[in-house]
Amino acid sequence: MIHSVQHQGPPLDQSHVGGSFMVATPCAHVYSRKAEYFSKKGRYDEAMECHRKTVTNLDLALKISPPSTVILESLQIQKKYHLKQVESLKLKKQQHERYMKALEYQRRRNPEYLAQQMEKLDKYNELQIAIYHNLDDTDTLLESLQKSRLGGQPEPAAGKAPVDELISLNHALHLLIHKMAQNFDEYATENENLKEKLRLYEKETENQPAVANSLETGRDALEAIEFHSQELPALAPLELPSFDVSGFENN
């Protein structure tokens, strides 16, 4: 997000400043818009490259900027913002890759689950695009108001003009929305991981009774085998009974 900055110091030597400075800042603005576009489309590598090019142009603008504290501070803030965006997009890309791997895993296991998740992802992307579109419209309106003010209206006696304050607030809104989107992605990834762990736990719990019955049956069989394999104790000698057969012989 690049802001136009109003010079509030002494009159500038436009012949010295106007050339490269007036080229560097619009280039940074163009790359900033491209970065937002690629980020919305999930083309993270291209978005990061555009943020880096924005930083390069801002560095050039810092070197040749007019001697104005307001301009320098604004350029530094914008540079810091775009550097943070590069790091944020790196994390977002990693989260997206993990999320897509999880979806692919679920697709193999449950196609209906994948369809539901893809529908949620599409709705979230549509919401993000709508939010960024409204922000872009606001940026365009504020820039038009600022150009109109620069065309003929006098500078405020003290403090910032209302348009400048709106631009600052809009810039802060951009930062908050990017942070919110990043947190949402982190929470969504964590939520999916917890759901997957819960599904695995439920599956293990369902299998526990069958496993317990199987173990009990196996334990009984082992006890029976162990009982039969034990040596039987020695039996006492068998004593034959004695019969008096003399009576039978006389008969």
TrEMBL record:
InterPro entries cross-referenced by the UniProt entry: NRBF2 (IPR039679), NRBF2_MIT (IPR033393)
Coiled-coil ranges per UniProt = 177-204
* Single GO biological process annotation from the record: autophagy
Keyword list, A-Z: Coiled coil
Q: Gene3D superfamilies from the entry?
A: Phosphotransferase system, lactose/cellobiose-type IIA subunit
Q: Which SUPFAM superfamilies match?
A: MIT domain-like
The family database entries (Pfam families) matched by this protein are listed as:
NRBF2_MIT
Where do the Nuclear receptor-binding factor 2 MIT domain residues begin and end? Answer: 28-93
Source organism superkingdom:
Eukaryota
Record-given protein name: Nuclear receptor-binding factor 2 MIT domain-containing protein
Which species? Answer: Culex quinquefasciatus
Upper classification of the source organism reads:
Eukaryota, Metazoa, Ecdysozoa, Arthropoda, Hexapoda
